[in-house]
Structure formats: structure tokens, C-alpha cells
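Quarterly update, task 2.4: zinc ion-bound model.
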Amino acid sequence: MPLETDASYACPSCGEENALGVDPTAGRRQTLVEDCPLCCRPLVFSVRIDGSGDALVERVERE
Ligand SMILES: [Zn+2]
């Protein structure tokens, strides 16, 4: 498994596409809080890791 994988998402605040860096070894389901790099608003991500170690953003919302 890679140490970090990227999951793309659309920011619910500014609408821009971004990539979130996820550590796939941290669990099959993760909740992460990161600031959007463009509008700097804190976002809450619900992330799922699939069987091959790829990360999918299932939900992203403003904190
Ligand atoms: Zn944003």
C-alpha cells in the first residue's frame, strides 16, 4: 500500500476541484478535517479506502 494517496473532491464552499492527501493505513473509514487550499475554510471529509488502497471522498462539508 502507498503511504499516501490522493482523493479528489469539489470544495462545498468555493466549488473548486482539489485533491486531499490521505494515509490509507490509518483506517478503512476516516474522518479528516483540512482547510481548503483555495478559500481556506475548514472542511470535514468522510473518506473510504477501497481494497486496492485508493481513497474516495464520500462526503465533504463545511465544518
Ligand atoms: Zn474552497
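Highlight for this quarter: The pocket of zinc ion is lined by residues 11, 13-14, 16, 36, 38-39, 41 (CB under 6 Å).
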